[in-house]
Amino acid sequence: TNECSVIIEASTGGLSSLTPQERALPLQNKKADIGSLNMGSLNFLDKVYINTVPYIRYWLQSMIKNGVKPSMEIFDTSNIAISDLFIKEGLIKPQYNFNFIFNYKWGMSFSISILELLKSMLPKESIWGTVFGESRDFKSHIQTSFQGATMIRVGFEDSRICNYREAKSNLELVKEIRRELEISGFELADPEEARKLLGII
C-alpha cells in the first residue's frame, strides 16, 4: 500500500536456464529500491549457477536505467575483483553495498578468517552484510554483527530452520533473529534509517 514503507529488493537471481533479459525483468518494478546482483558464477550442488561478466554488465545497465541500487552478492574473493572492474568503469557508484554469501554447498564456508579477508578487500565507502545457506541457528548471524555487519538476511530462500526446528513462516525467522540481536545489544534500524544506511535516500 502507499502507507507501507518497506524496502523492496528486485532480484536478478532466478534460474540459470532463464536468459539475462528474463532475469532482469524484476528491475522494471517501479517500487524497487535495490537489486540483488550476483557478482560471479558458482558451482552449486551438481550444477553451475551462471553469472558471467557480460550478464552482470547487462543487469547493471538495467539497474541504472530503472534507478535501482545494486546489492552485490559475493560468492568468493574473485567476485570482489569483478566488482572493482565495474566500479572503475563507473557503473557502480558509492556507497557500495556487499553481501557475503556463506555455507551454500561448494561456496564459501563461514569462518572469521575468511570474513576478515573479504572485509580487507572491500573498497572505501562500502557497507557489508551476510547471508547463510542452510543455517540451523543464528549464531553466525550474531557473530558477524559483532564483526561489523550492517545487514543480516534471513528467510526461507536461505533456510527454513529456526533454532533446530522448522519455521512455519518467514515472519517467525525475522522475529527470532530480531529477538536474538536485541538480546545481544543491537538496535535494529527502522525503514527510514535502513534507507539511509543502504544509501537509497
Question: Quick one: how many beta strands?
Answer: 10
At CATH level 2, the architecture is Alpha-Beta Barrel
Helix content: 25-40%
- Average predicted confidence as pLDDT: 96
| Low-confidence blocks of residues | none
Tell me about this structure.
This protein is α/β, with parallel strands linked by helices. It has one domain: TIM Barrel, CATH 3.20.20.70. Helices cover 35% and strands 20% of the residues. The protein is built from 7 helices and 10 strands. It has helices at residues 20-23, 53-66, 77-88, 112-121, 139-146, 170-183, 191-198, and strands at residues 9-11, 34-38, 42-44, 47-49, 69-74, 96-102, 126-132, 151-152, 161-162, 165-166. Strands 1-2-5-6-7-8 form a 6-stranded parallel β-sheet. Helix 4 links the parallel strand 6 (96-102) and strand 7 (126-132). The longest helix is centred in the N-terminal third of the chain and has 14 residues, at 53-66. The chain is globular. 29% of the residues are buried. The mean pLDDT is 96.
Task: Present the secondary structure layout.
Layout (H helix, E strand, L loop, with lengths): L8 E3 L8 H4 L10 E5 L3 E3 L2 E3 L3 H14 L2 E6 L2 H12 L7 E7 L9 H10 L4 E7 L6 H8 L4 E2 L8 E2 L2 E2 L3 H14 L7 H8 L3
What keywords describe this structure?
201 residues; alpha/beta; 35% helix
Q: What is the gist of this entry?
A:
This protein has 201 residues and is an alpha/beta fold. Helix content is 35%, strand content 20%. InterPro entries: Aldolase_TIM (IPR013785), BKACE (IPR008567).
